[in-house]
Amino acid sequence: MRVAVAGASGRMGRELIDAVLQAPDLSLAVALDRAGSPGLGQDAGAFLGQHTGVVITDDPAALADADCLIDFTRPEGTLAHLAACVEHATNVVIGTTGFDDAGKAAIAQAAQRIGVVFAPNMSVGVNTTLKLLELAARMLPDYDVEVFEAHHRKKVDAPSGTALKMGEVVAQARGKSLDDVADWARHGHTGEREPGRIGFSVVRGGDIVGDHTVFFCGTGERIEITHRSSSRANYAQGSLRAVRYLAGHAPGLFDMQQVLGLDG
Ligand SMILES: NC(=O)C1=CN([C@@H]2O[C@H](COP(=O)(O)OP(=O)(O)OC[C@H]3O[C@@H](n4cnc5c(N)ncnc54)[C@H](OP(=O)(O)O)[C@@H]3O)[C@@H](O)[C@H]2O)C=CC1
Ligand SMILES: O=C(O)C1=N[C@H](C(=O)O)C[C@H](O)C1
What we know:
It is a single chain. The protein is of the alpha/beta class. It folds into 2 domains: 2-118, Rossmann fold (3-Layer(aba) Sandwich); 124-229, Dihydrodipicolinate Reductase, domain 2. The protein is 33% helix and 22% strand. Strands 2-1-3-4-5-11 form a 6-stranded parallel β-sheet, with helices on both faces. The longest helix has 16 residues, at 124-139. The two termini are 28 Å apart. The relative contact order is 0.16.
């Protein structure tokens, strides 16, 4: 299967190129970076000391040569690539976070024409953690829930897409919409905590790959469900599973719970 990688010079782009080059059933067909990127014109494997013959381009028309794009960039980049994927009937795995409602609607619309996997976290561990959260939320309806996340200093969106998803899973298990119960930040004289709210807190610093903890705080006890990433390899491997999943499915919008068979 011919795979394209967007954001080829980014942290995830490089992790993905490495993973695709090592996968016997996949070939790297296209590598995209944005206009003005210093990577343009270089071999996509140069950072590994490898010659792949795939030159990094900023032309989304190159997506005609790929069966599936893996896109971990920024919302505006992903949406531009998505339009080219629809034009060329190329499936897409979207790992980018930070979309607004209009961006999410554009993704859903594209998924009527092509296969799309869209998930804020591709790791098997995080997706298993989401199932644990669903169980805990159902078993502990009166416990106070707080979502904590920590990431590297270069991350541009907050809370992380994964933290938002964790909050949504808990809210949904309690029959609520996250927007109605979220406390995004606290400062000053906040008053006592209101029952049923879901609080968020965020750390940014250094090279933290990605930590998430959800606290279920009751009276006399608390449960902390934590996932920590120590490398980006799991995000890349999950993305490759998503590429293979799309090859066996008709157009539609899927998430990693479906790819991993955790949606039952
Ligand atoms: N779903 C998941 O499992 C995971 C999701 N992510 C998400 O993936 C995204 C990327 O993360 P990361 O790799 O760390 O970020 P980086 O900043 O390291 O890489 C982003 C890449 O996208 C490029 N880019 C930026 N803007 C555009 C644009 N408008 N059009 C095209 N390309 C663009 C950047 O180019 P340039 O450097 O020139 O700006 C860079 O090559 C984030 O949204 C992050 O939250 C990250 C890890 C796991
Ligand atoms: O930007 C990152 O690095 C990450 N982003 C994703 C998110 O926003 O949840 C996934 C992971 O936590 C790493």
